[in-house]
């Protein structure tokens, strides 16, 4: 007999879990829910299957919520956890209602089990195939799901300014645990830095707890390295339970350069901490899902974990449920990156099943974007309720009018949606998006400044904002906003001009360094990776930061958003050396889920590496600038064709 699975309406698990996931952000004692429309699961769903029984069978039911059973259109009254049917043909309709969590069903008899052969609807009478657990739940009831934990111990305890500090040695995201010798109130101050853990007035993460004698555990995970605990009772046996997402395989890199090894390892640890139920931005402050952060995580994922389920969970949660009423995270460029990411995901993984499933929602997002644009020129401008982000940094808050980077990303999104629409057989919308991309492309030359040799930032009411930023011009290179000659001009006249404001976020370093790599400037990128990320390590970083400016001094490094400790010191978008080294120095790409290995960059020297693949891992060994071993190691259950 097949094993019964928990089944639910497709996309609802991701929506419901993300709603709860994004509600776990607190600053001190104030909840900070994500500033986007919270999509939740349908509270009532119906499951259907037509069956034929050769003999009498007993059916056992588990439901996440209240339920009823109909057999051939008639209710089975009094059905609590089982029922019996004689031999014959039947239509089973089981409706589950849950006001608080995901309505889900698990059913089993001798010959019938809940699985993909059922159909499900959200009371709209449109039945589709249900979603099932791919292994993420590990057999748990969906509403009971929790990430596994492992014990973390502090590495030292010491006194400073009259306070006892517990140092866990590196960043973790964990439930704090401690033992008291009496009932007492407890105040906990967490910090990614020692200074933050000691600053009760300015620390973003605190707990005020009423505790009992004995072992106690904080109610929510926090991102921290250091912790101070204040209580009139004696505190002992301090430790933590760190949450983690198990990975089938993790990338490794070993070179003769210790600094490069540390940068790669720290990048992996940073991304790992932010690869949870979803790809999140950072473990201390936001702990939310963001479209732009996700775009980069999707590419890093190929070279770190190749966890397609994690990618899909995050995509489903971010794109949300119908109708689309705002940009992803309210951010224009993040919406374009979501659409671009879907085309890249299909090409890299070959996972057409997911693309067909998510296409209607991606199409709705694309249609929303088109509805906000100028029908004549194709260009798009932010409105009052929109956030035109691009990047943090000098000049990046001056985003009124038609911003050049947004037009390039919009064109790329339309081009990629034309490809996706054609792939799924939606020819009418494929032509629509292709024509819209052409319309945008025809207007991009108006942003070019021949005298400066680069693109200006924006045009508003016909007036050219003749400011030049690396971000706009990097986007032009990466997303084909101009021809090859203009790209070369951008590199020489904008990207290598010290007078152009520098990029200080790892987020846009990702794009800047990839653009330079595409333009054949690996040598410069290699040196800058070691310099930029190496300086964070020199300052004691155990994970990489949301923003880094080497002109900051002391506690200035921790400030952001007008808050003394507002900066995240463990941010997913700062892990880009994983992608940059894998794609442009090991020279590995992925096509339909399979690795394609070119020639390694001599800049890496001799090295050994393990990179994930869809069905196992790729072992690489390089000597004297040449690969001497390229070996696919398959999982036991890997698909034979890999």
How would you characterize the overall build of this protein?
It is a single chain. By secondary structure, the protein is α+β, with helices and mostly antiparallel strands. Among the domains are: 138 residues, Jelly Rolls (Sandwich); 95 residues, Sandwich (Jelly Rolls); 201 residues, no CATH class. Helix content is 30%, strand content 26%. It has 14 helices and 31 strands. Strands 13, 14, 15, 16, 17, 18, 19 and 20 form an eight-stranded antiparallel beta sheet that branches. Strands 7-6-9-4-11 form a five-stranded antiparallel beta sheet, with no helix packed on it. A four-stranded antiparallel beta sheet has the order 21-29-30-31. α4 packs parallel to α6 and α6 packs antiparallel against α7. The longest helix is centred in the middle third of the chain and has 21 residues.
How is the secondary structure organized here?
Elements: E1 7-8, H1 12-22, E2 26-27, E3 30-31, E4 44-53, E5 57-64, E6 66-71, E7 74-75, E8 82-85, E9 88-97, E10 104-108, E11 119-121, E12 131-132, E13 149-152, E14 156-160, E15 163-180, E16 184-191, H2 194-198, E17 206-211, E18 214-217, E19 222-231, E20 235-243, E21 252-255, H3 258-274, H4 291-302, H5 308-319, H6 332-349, H7 352-371, E22 402-403, H8 404-424, H9 427-443, E23 448-449, E24 454-455, E25 458-460, E26 463-465, H10 470-478, H11 484-495, H12 506-518, H13 522-538, H14 577-584, E27 588-591, E28 594-597, E29 607-613, E30 616-623, E31 626-634
Helix pairs in contact: 3-13, 4-5, 4-6, 6-7, 6-8, 7-8, 8-9, 8-10, 10-11, 10-12
């Amino acid at each position: 007999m097949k094993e019964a699975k928990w089944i639910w309406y497709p996309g609802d698990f991701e929506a419901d879990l993300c709603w709860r996931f994004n509600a776990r952000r607190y600053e001190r004692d104030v909840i900070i829910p994500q500033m986007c429309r919270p999509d939740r699961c349908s509270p009532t769903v119906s499951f259907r299957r037509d069956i034929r029984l050769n003999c009498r069978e007993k059916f056992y039911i588990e439901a996440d919520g209240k339920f009823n059973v109909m057999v051939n259109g008639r209710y089975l009254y009094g059905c609590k956890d089982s029922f019996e049917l004689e031999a014959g043909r039947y239509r089973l309709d089981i409706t589950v209602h849950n006001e608080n969590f995901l309505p889900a069903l698990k059913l089993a008899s001798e010959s019938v089990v809940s699985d993909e052969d059922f159909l499900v609807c959200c009371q709209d009478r449109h039945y589709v195939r249900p979603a099932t657990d791919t292994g993420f739940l590990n057999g748990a009831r969906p509403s009971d799901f929790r990430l596994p934990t492992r014990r973390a111990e502090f590495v030292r305890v010491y006194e400073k300014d009259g306070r006892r500090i517990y140092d866990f040695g590196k960043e973790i995201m964990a439930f704090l645990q401690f033992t008291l010798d009496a009932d007492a109130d407890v105040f906990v101050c967490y910090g990614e830095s020692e200074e933050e853990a000691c600053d009760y007035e300015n620390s973003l993460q605190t707990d005020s707890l009423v505790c009992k004698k004995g072992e106690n555990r904080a109610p929510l995970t926090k991102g921290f390295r250091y912790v101070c605990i204040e209580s009139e009772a004696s505190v002992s046996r301090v430790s933590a339970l760190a949450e983690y997402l198990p990975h089938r395989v993790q990338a490794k890199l070993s070179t003769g350069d210790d600094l490069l090894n540390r940068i790669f390892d720290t990048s992996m640890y940073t991304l790992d901490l932010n690869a949870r139920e979803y790809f999140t931005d950072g473990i201390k402050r936001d702990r939310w899902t963001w479209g732009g952060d996700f775009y980069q995580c999707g590419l890093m994922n190929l070279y770190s974990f190749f966890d397609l389920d994690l990618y899909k969970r995050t995509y489903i949660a971010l794109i949300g449920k119908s109708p689309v009423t705002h940009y992803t995270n309210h951010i224009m460029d993040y919406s374009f990156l979501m659409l671009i990411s879907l085309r890249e995901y299909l090409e890299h993984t070959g996972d057409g099943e997911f693309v067909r499933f998510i296409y209607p929602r991606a199409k709705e997002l694309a249609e929303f974007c088109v509805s906000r644009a100028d029908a004549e020129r194709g260009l798009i401008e932010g409105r009052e309720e929109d956030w035109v982000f691009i990047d943090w940094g000098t000049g990046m808050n001056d985003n009124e009018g038609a911003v050049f980077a947004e037009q390039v990303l919009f064109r790329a999104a339309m081009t990629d949606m034309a490809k996706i629409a054609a792939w799924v057989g939606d020819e009418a919308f494929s032509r629509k998006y292709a024509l819209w991309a052409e319309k945008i492309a025809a207007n991009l030359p108006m942003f070019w400044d021949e005298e400066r040799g680069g693109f200006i930032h924006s045009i508003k009411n016909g007036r050219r904002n003749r400011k030049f930023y690396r971000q706009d011009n990097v986007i032009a290179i990466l997303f084909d906003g101009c021809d090859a000659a203009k790209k070369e001009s951008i590199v020489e006249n904008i990207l290598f001009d010290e007078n152009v404001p520098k990029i200080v976020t790892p987020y846009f370093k990702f794009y800047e360094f990839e653009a330079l790599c595409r333009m054949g400037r690996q040598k410069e990128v290699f040196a800058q990776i070691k310099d930029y990320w190496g300086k964070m390590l020199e300052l004691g970083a155990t994970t990489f930061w949301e923003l880094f400016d080497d002109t900051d001094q002391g506690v200035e490094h921790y400030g952001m958003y007008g808050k003394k400790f507002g900066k995240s010191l463990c941010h997913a978008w700062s892990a880009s050396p994983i992608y940059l080294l894998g794609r442009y120095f090991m020279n590995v790409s992925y096509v339909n889920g399979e690795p394609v290995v070119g020639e390694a960059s001599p800049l890496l020297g001799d090295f050994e590496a393990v990179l994930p693949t869809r069905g196992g891992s790729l072992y690489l060994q390089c000597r004297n600038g040449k690969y001497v071993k390229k070996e696919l190691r398959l999982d036991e259950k890997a698909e034979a064709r890999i």
